[in-house]
Backbone:
């Protein structure tokens, strides 16, 4: 289970700019550019049995996201991979969530940030299922979001950037206030896009349908699940999906590092019955992320 302590008041260590720093001392100045202007990129990773799933793939995406936002991370991919492992070891963690983050610092204030500098940190903590375990098994309930994923001409949609999650937080809160676990978002054209922090899949007549990721992240978990489905002989169709199609699907599930593979039982007033395909892919994913040494 996740630690209930506030995130700024815990025992342990955080890797900050190349050094292992006591958790409570890993702080930044109030005039940090990333706080004021969202010039920050991050990753979400999970470790299972002491191994971080697809670590280097996540780290490479972190570097790609930084370049999209116009800054270079002052470390190598290997150094960040090593830092992720080191911070787990320093905190005596085996199964946990890992969060690398890079941001523009406090060397300059204002929209221009050429002299702000770049800071990097890696944190890790115990974090169980993103959704209530009992609810996850029977399928979570999704609200219909009001905000939409923006036009790629208006945002750097291929970056895992902090600013892009502002509307996700608003919609997550709106959904929770209404008794739902999360929200399904459309894109600026009115097409089905994703949830607030996870990709979405639908099943009809034994085939899997998922939105084309042309204005939101093509998640690492998303790609993993697509590969797992194809390896089991399931057809995966990436295409435009319209809201009026929701009633035509028999099953639905979402994917993400935090969400893993989570069945969906309801979107707005449309209901689904999590079935064999959802269950098979959930089990296949958990098998794929579990190291052989831990499974033995």
Residues:
């Amino acid at each position: 289970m996740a630690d209930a302590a506030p995130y700024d008041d815990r025992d342990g260590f955080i890797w900050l700019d190349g050094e292992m720093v006591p958790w409570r001392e890993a702080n930044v100045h109030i005039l940090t550019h990333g706080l004021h202007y969202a010039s920050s990129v991050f990753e979400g990773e999970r470790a299972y049995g002491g191994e971080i799933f697809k670590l280097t793939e996540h780290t490479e995406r972190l570097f790609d996201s930084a370049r999209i936002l116009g800054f270079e991370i002052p470390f190598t991919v290997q150094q960040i991979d090593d830092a992720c492992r080191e911070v787990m070891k320093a905190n005596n963690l085996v199964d946990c969530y890992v969060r690398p983050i890079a941001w523009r610092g406090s060397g300059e204030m204002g929209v221009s940030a050429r002299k702000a500098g770049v800071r990097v940190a890696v944190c890790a903590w115990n974090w169980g299922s993103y959704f209530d375990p009992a609810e996850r098994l029977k399928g979570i309930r999704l609200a219909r979001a009001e905000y939409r994923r923006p036009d790629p001409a208006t945002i750097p949609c291929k970056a895992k950037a902090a600013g892009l999650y502002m509307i996700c937080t608003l919609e997550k809160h709106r959904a929770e206030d209404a008794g739902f676990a999360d929200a399904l978002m459309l894109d600026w054209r009115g097409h089905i896009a994703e949830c607030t922090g996870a990709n979405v899949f639908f099943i009809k007549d034994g085939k899997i349908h998922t939105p084309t990721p042309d204005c939101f992240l093509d998640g690492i978990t998303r790609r993993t699940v697509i590969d797992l489905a194809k390896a089991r002989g399931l057809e995966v169709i990436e295409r435009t999906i319209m809201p009026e199609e929701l009633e035509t699907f028999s099953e639905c599930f979402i994917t993400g590092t935090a969400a893993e593979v989570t069945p969906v039982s309801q979107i707005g007033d449309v209901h689904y019955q999590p079935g064999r395909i959802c269950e098979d892919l959930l089990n296949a994913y958990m098998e794929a992320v579990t190291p052989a040494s831990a499974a033995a």
In short: The chain has a mean pLDDT of 94.
